[in-house]
Design brief:
Layout: E1 17-21, H1 26-37, E2 41-46, H2 49-59, E3 62-65, H3 71-74, E4 83-86, H4 101-129, E5 132-137, H5 150-170, E6 175-182, H6 188-201, H7 205-213, H8 225-234, E7 247-250
Parallel strand pairs: 1-2, 1-4, 2-3, 4-5, 5-6, 6-7
Helix pairs in contact: 1-2, 1-8, 4-5, 6-7
The structure holds nicotinamide-adenine-dinucleotide.
Nicotinamide-adenine-dinucleotide is lined by residues 22, 24-28, 46-48, 51, 66-69, 87-90, 110, 137, 139, 182, 184-185, 187-190.
Length: 257
């Protein structure tokens, strides 16, 4: 019997619409570019107006300048999307006893509550079309902990749970939900962390990359945003309809420990 699958096929997403949160920078920008190249109309959602507009212009998409911590503003975003990439995130590095509670709450709002609300908002359209892809930008910190990152590690572990529940509910409707779990990626978020980690650990910035960030990675280089975007796009392609509720490490072997 001949299989209906062509193992060499690539994603053709023409006629589909995608929404990428935090699409103005780093991994989100790389995802927007990859999804647009595969034929989607990309809705670029970002707090940073200039960045969102620049990426939308470059990819032929639409910019939405929204603060994901503003629950009411999420109602302004399109619900008719076939691919949702929950990517926007922020970091704060401090010991728990000094961690500002309002910063902890903001991180949960942007990285857990907003993804929940956007999944909730977009699933009816995906269910109606019998096809949808939720890609959650988690982290190795969705699977492992590090000191001084209580809010971020908590939020990423919560996102893992949301992704799995979405996978179970969406399966009967042709909707998959997965997490992508990178180690350190060369983006502005990480560049910011190098400085704050240097302060938290009391060591020079160059030592942060070699001795702290890549300490648990067997592969001793930062990941590029395009490598993460390629995995996100693959999850939307023709070979992954059976892949759901999973967490895919892109961490240079970190989680093999
Ligand atoms: P980045 O800082 O380069 O980009 C994040 C984008 O999100 C920015 O454009 C920012 O304006 C936007 N954003 C932040 N708060 C927002 C809000 N309240 N409303 C709307 N937009 C908001 O970050 P990045 O490194 O590309 O990270 C993207 C995602 O990947 C994050 O969820 C991050 O946790 C995850 N991740 C990053 C790395 C890494 O090493 N860079 C590793 C693992 C996981």
């Amino acid at each position: 019997m001949t299989s209906r699958f062509d193992a060499s096929a690539t994603a053709d997403l023409s006629g589909r619409a995608a929404m990428v949160t935090g699409g103005g920078s780093g991994i989100g920008k790389a995802c927007a570019r990859a999804l647009a190249a595969a034929g989607t109309l990309v809705h670029v959602v970002d707090l940073d107006a200039d960045a969102a507009k620049a990426v939308a212009e470059e990819t032929g998409g639409r910019a939405h300048v929204v603060d994901l911590a503003d629950t009411e503003a999420l109602e302004m975003l399109p619900a008719e999307v076939d691919v949702l990439v929950n990517n926007a995130g922020l970091q704060h590095v401090a010991p728990i006893e000094d961690f500002p509670p309002e910063r902890f709450a903001l991180i949960q709002q942007v990285m857990v509550t907003a993804p929940f609300l956007l999944v909730r908002r977009t699933l009816p359209h995906m269910y109606a079309r019998g096809w949808g892809r939720i890609v959650n930008l988690s982290s190795v910190h969705g699977l492992r902990a590090s000191p001084y990152k209580s809010a971020y590690v908590t939020a990423k572990h919560a996102l893992e749970g949301l992704s799995k529940v979405t996978a179970l509910e969406g399966a009967a409707h042709g909707v998959t939900s997965n997490c992508v779990n990178p180690g350190y990626v060369r983006t502005p978020l990480v560049e910011g962390q190098i400085a704050s980690q240097a302060e938290a650990h009391g060591i020079p910035e160059e030592k942060v990359v070699s001795d702290v960030m890549l300490e648990r990675s067997a592969i001793k280089r930062l990941i590029e945003p395009e490598e993460v975007a390629a995995m996100a796009l693959w999850l939307c392609g023709p070979h992954t309809s059976h892949l759901t509720g999973a967490s895919l490490p892109l961490d240079g072997g970190w989680s093999a420990h």
